[in-house]
Amino acid sequence: MSHNSFRNIIINTDNYKHCHYPLYPKGTEYVSSYIESRGGEFPVTMFVGLQAFIREYLMHPITLEDIDEAEFTEREQGMHFNRDNWMGILNDHGGYLPVEIEAVPEGSVLPTKNVLVQVINTDPKYWWATSFFETALLRAVWYPTTVGTISWLAKQQIKLALKQTSDNPGIVRHILHDYGARGVSSQESAALGGLAHLVNFSQSDTVPGILAAKKYYNAVDPSNSGPNSEHAGFCAWGRDDEVGAMRNMLEIYADNGVALLLTDTYDHEHAVKNIIGGELKEMVENFPGLVGIRPDSGDVVQVTSDTTEWLMENFGYTTNSKGYKVLPDYLRVVQGDGVRRESLPKVFIEMERRGLGRERRVRHGGRTAPALQSRHAGVRHEGQRREGERPMARDRKVPDRRQHESLEGRAPGPAVRRRGLPHGAARLHTAGGERPGPGVPQRPAAEEVGLRRADRAQRARIPRALLSGCRRRNVGRVRARRRGRGRRLI
Length: 490
Hints:
Elements lengths: L30 E6 L7 E3 L3 H9 L5 H13 L6 H11 L5 E5 L5 E3 L3 E7 L7 H4 L1 H32 L10 E3 L8 H14 L2 E2 L2 H11 L13 H5 L6 H11 L5 E5 L5 H12 L1 H5 L4 E5 L5 H16 L2 E2 L5 E2 L4 E3 L10 H10 L10 E3 L11 E4 L2 E4 L29 E2 L7 E4 L20 E5 L2 E5 L23 E4 L2
Parallel strand pairs: 1-20, 6-7, 6-13, 8-9, 9-12
Antiparallel strand pairs: 1-5, 2-4, 3-5, 3-17, 10-11, 14-15, 16-17, 18-19
Helix pairs in contact: 1-7, 5-6, 5-13, 6-7, 10-12, 12-13
């Protein structure tokens, strides 16, 4: 197996795809297929991930080596393989699949049971190419679209909470932070899910997602993060010197302007009330920036509000124009565990019940807790073993939850040419051998997304920084005629 095997589009499919081309009626010239969300738990779908797939797979032509490898792989399994089909694509189209892809703009939110992507071959000689890469295409858009949809719905919950209790609703993009890389199946999943999160929010620790946003969508500075702590480092100081661990972090990262203190290594309530609100109170008040107080266990609904109230007892609070109590500007609570779709609205309801505002970017960590977690049991320091005493919350089952919205102010990537299709659908061309032309300057992206009516359905129009003005990749040598047979991919 060559080092490019997993990028070889000829075998990036199901085996049976290789025996389908002769099953079409003689004289078939064009096949049109489409992808839709057929419904399910959510009433809407937020579409994202297509351009990443196109740039990673379809913009790299197949080679003779790829054809040789595919033939050996398929014949070894007893599967039919037509070498002439692929040699024709190599010779006639420079190794690029002669297909044309139309899609709604990435970042769009629209009701389920709507077409998201449509594919048609551009050369009647290769009618079978349309559905050949169905497996890879569905996989490529399903995961980020699912993550993005969950994320967008979470963002609507956050926007509602801010509208009701905050004087600063514009901070919505800073509220949910992504720690999902450890809870997914692969680095590529982390990249696509992390990218989906960045469409809605600007906070992430998922490096593969940040890199994907830069690589596939030409994003510039798509995310923010800051010094955070973990139990291994704090546990190394021992229970008797937990205050030393926190003081050390505040001193080291004073120049960064932000420090997130972990509070549940031993006793969360003691750490908040007596260490942060007692021994280190003056240091926190004088810290040149923002101090985040991060509980990482317990009942997320109760712990978030309890922590906020304990801090208010020691550091005071102000009351905003809506009558809700707000922590000082230099202090906020960062809930690091248990934040999921079901618990998020309950957190907001409890805070509102207690009269606590979502002001000043009091943010909850959008961490994705995997089924298998790395638990810190202890460290050896200067010959002495120091145990971690944080209780394990064995009942926590938090699936991958990331989020989604436009990479605002980012330069668009290539591969898309607009043609005035209904509701701004984008046409993506991936056949032939032309190189991308110069990009068209994108339109300014707005910070937030509004809902509007489109064809009697509510549809969110996300700023088009993901795709707008993207460059034409290739049209193919024969422009598709609107006839032939249509089929649904899913």
